[in-house]
Design brief:
Layout lengths: L1 H15 L2 E7 L2 H4 L8 E8 L14 E3 L6 E7 H9 L3 H6 L5 E4 L3 H11 L3 H16 L7 E3 H20 L7 H4 L5 H14 L7 E3 L2 H20 L8 H16 L1
Parallel strand pairs: 2-4
Antiparallel strand pairs: 1-2, 1-5, 3-4, 6-7
Helix pairs in contact: 6-7, 6-10, 7-10
Length: 254
Amino acid sequence: MQKEIAQHLEQVERQHNVKILYACESGSRGWGFASPDSDYDLRFIYQQPLDHYLKIYEATENLDLAINGDLDSNGWDLRKTLRLIARSNATPLEWLQSPVVYRETPGFKEALWPLCAQYFDARTSIHHYLGIAKGAMEALGADGSLKIKKLFYILRPLLAAQWCATRKTIAPMDIGTLSQLLPRSLQHTVKDLIAQKALAPEGAVIHVDEALHAWINAVTDSCIAEARTLKTEARPVASLDLFFKKMIYDDDDR
């Protein structure tokens, strides 16, 4: 699959006249709980020629490409990515932490990551992750039944929200690191669930036990309460502007 992804990225660059700065795995394969039939969720950040950024009307800033077999691929323009980082959007913060990187321009992540920390806002991230968990919770049956995939769409976001609420730093992407926040008894439970998901199809149904359900409710309540105490402060975007200008002008000089 690595070869297929590399060829796909080269094709994207040729067809759309862009330069891919960074490409990674974003879904369950990056989060640490893939199933045998999990798709490859390829996400990338791309840069367009300087002339593109000097027009009075903005062209599209994302490439949503058709799913091809097991490969789900889409990317964001550099300028859009930086605007989202300025608003502490969790998605690019996760992409830049992915343990599976398919392409990276030397020095790109190293230069951008400190800016992500500079613009991180705990309240924004808590609300983002709680929203994902809440959406997945709607699939929970009255008898506690739930697709195992959906369970992890509750657990990982809640752990990320808890990380942001308690540590006030960018939450790690992978569930292995996030699981440090769980009570020891539930760490074993979640570890077993990860092992179970690694062997089960995405649609496999399980029953959420009472202890895990109680933890879900308690962490949701505590994160909501903590978010209410926090304020979101506007930050000047000069650092991101400078990063953007350096990227596009340096590339134009080559």
